[in-house]
Amino acid sequence: MHFSSSKGLTRRNVLSLGGAGILSALFSQLSSNEAAADDSSPNPAAGDPAAGPVARARSCIMLWMNGGPSHLDTFDPKPGSKVAGPFKAIATRSSGVSICEHLPGVAEKMNRIALLRGVSSKEGNHQRAQEMGHTGHVPNPTVQAPSIGAWVLKKRPASGLEIPSFVSLGGPSAGGGFFGNPFDPFVVQRPGERPDDLAPARAVGPGREQARRAFLAALESDFASSTRDAKVGARTALYARARTMMGSRSVEAFDVMQETESLRTKYGDNEFGRGCLVARRLVEIGVPFVEVTLDGWDTHKDNFERTKGRMGILDPALASLLGDLEERALLDSTMVVCMGEFGRSPRINGNEGRDHHPGAFSVAMAGGGVRGGIVHGQTDAEGASVVNDGVSVPDVIATIAQLMGVDPRSEAITPAGRPIQVTQQGKPIAAVIGS
Amino acid sequence: MGFAVALGCAGTGSSNAPGASSSSSSVDGSPSREPSQLDALFDEAWRADKLVASPEIDDATYLRRVSIDLIGRIPSFEELKAFEADPGSDKRARIVEKLLDTPEHARHLARLWEVTLLGPEVKSRLVDRGALRRWLESKFAVDTRWDVLARELVTAEGKSSVGGARKGAYLADDPDRAKEERDAGVNGATNYALRFAKSPEDMAGKTARAFMGVQIQCAQCHDHKSEEWKQTDFRGMAATFTRMRFAPVDRSQGEMPVFEIESASRPPRRLVNKDETVALLADLAPRALDGTQLAQDEGARRSLATWMTSVDNAWFSRAMVNRVWGELMGEGFVDPIDDMRPSNTPVLPAALDLLAHDFESHGYDLDWLYATICASKAYGRALGGNGQGSRAALFSHAALRPMTSDALLDSVFVASDVTSTLEDRAPQRAEQIKTLLRRKMSFVFEDDVESNGAAYDGTLQQALFSMNGALSTAATTYREGALLESLLEAEDDEAIAELYLRTLGRPPRPEEVVRAKALLSAPSGPDPAAEPGGPQQGRKKKGGKRPGGGGRKAIAADGGIPAGALRSEANSARERGFEDLFWALLNSSEFYFRR
Q: Which pTM was predicted?
């Protein structure tokens, strides 16, 4: 099923769009001059959109659980075991599958979620595991692998978009690696608000604005012709894109105040909740890759209280996001991935905490061609190791790539002359790919 | 193993022969005016390839180049005037010598090496980056020879930090903290090892890459696919870095931790038990990359450092020469800059060999190296080649390249004299604001360490920051105490010329003066709402501080610049026109690129 650009404009969701702004923005993009998008890739060999697997998803929202959430206390509970801790497990909409009692909203949505319980890696160090979780490559000092968001930006840039195609809400995400700065995410430090620097710090009247831009244009033109260096033109083009963004209605997508108070409350009045709501608004206007970060999962101390607190933020946000996307008929074309860099130890340490545990952890995926209501992979009785259908982090990233229409076997040449693929030998997980 | 053999080094020659610099100047290290052997090599190479070299740059361009390259900022208006007025024919050599002697140069090198050694981002929670930077700065400030510095880094022992609040630790230009560190006996250099505390292989890989220009990490897992290094060679070197201990001294929650780094005959048992690679390496005999046996125990690092920096290890001088050449020229003889494997051939190998040999014979004197390159014919070439990289044309022309984010920040400060605007009420605050801005700018302008500068690598956030950010506004505002106020006391012609000199480092052309004057008389009403923080900012604050109108206590969300510094007192078309002119010059590519 190819994504069709008319998706999202059915009568039902036209009415439910938050304000006319989004709608008019969408229309203006469909008819706008698409030339502005062409210089998004300075690499003349940017991917040919016609090649590669059929995209099931137009957009991917990656919910990054920074610090390594305890799988035993979230998605892979072991009730009755000696490692279980104080939380109970509750039944979900996915028959036979239980998750932690503190994720009730997500439990209601399990019929749309594919739960991977058999993910494992060898990286127990935060920085390395975070890098791998974003790039699908084991970190290596010789090459800065691009993150999956950067690959999507390179191979499937959205045309006609007046705002960036790769956005990180809460930051920092991972960047373009050796693809370079232009493939880094646009980072919004305070999700829910418009990004910084979209308007002059002190307003200039329209006449002045016009005059100073014209003067700058003359400076640029002179410098470009005297140096005959394409870099000058590239910089001028970037400024033009920045101006387009400044004047674009699409910028309203970053602003949660455009949504009703009840919806904002439903997602949660916190940075992550707002970030998820902004993510929905961004994919609505066609942004292909959005990441929202929730930090604080690194619970070496006081694991249960703190994880419960995190779930109190994650649950309403994720459940609302899935429900909202579904209601707007966007879930079929939007992948949502909820993952962290590793799991946490079955053994509870002396500080009521759990320590890093890359040997087994969970990832939840939904939408965008993902088969809902299934569990793939199983850990042993204490959640220490994977006993069935294990998958690697590169496999997860390859699955995202595949569903986003980026061939996981696509290659790029590193500055040292070595070819690398989208992931390090990752294979898309067939079990989660719906028909 | 054929390390030295594979290089095919140029013959050593006698120390009396004219070298990269003329022989008569080799004592004090400053180059003289006579054509050097280095220049002759380039002339010959250009002739042989039928390359027409660009003309030599003029004095103003030269000053701008060496300022950016040696002290990380453009020259100030006063510095430009002084240089122009200097009648001496050796003024270029003298200005280079002067710049090399400044604390700014030491700070500039310290910043470069902090990033080279620790990477661009704060990736480790253990490392006190500021302490390493201050250590580096102190070494560069007293002209420490490169081999000495490298040895001290590789063998560093001692306390890593004074600890305390994390935030304070990174204010690297903080002299109080520097004193605290001295009093507490902190050895900032230990933070290099601390960065790789649990991974001796990464330490070996980074050390080889930073100091020898070789990337051996591929041999971490298998014999290198295209080069001769074997897994055993790499592991022998990695074994050296297991002969250390990192003892925690203070790990207070939420604060900068303090470690004691010391050499040891074995790594701690806990690490050996946890990590099978470390266990394997702990049992291996430390060896240099060419197989030379090293001391087996606590002395392992020292003997590695001695081997690495000896004249018998040609990689050491070649790596640094290539790196500094690349810093100053935009590209190295070898590309990538730190991938000098035998099959990656340099352009102009004879020039690389000559500089490397002379660097050694001058005792690895960095001032000599920088001065020699800055005096070379190749360095002084004007832009050319239609933007093609200069390396491909054997450096017969220069190419545009961007300044680093630090340099950009410092250049905006120098051009606009905005410090005085910020120092309004609190002089110390200007430094703090600069630090906050530096952090914001390095976040927004994250330097692309992988890039070879061949393409323009800007991002939307950089463009937005340059156009609309509080720094640009504060820098170009007409208000009491700001630069524009005094500048506008002069006639238009003089004021316009000064703005061009301050920003672009050159006087305006006649047609540019005409265009500027048109801007000054363009009809423009007063600005819409005069209050900063009003609705036209398009910014809604959720919690946190709201930008106040006073400018004394209220801090805008933007790099800490007080709102008061953003308010304009321009009352006429002329005053507003000059704000616009200044804004355009600071946003121009001619300002942004190093030409």
A: 0.83
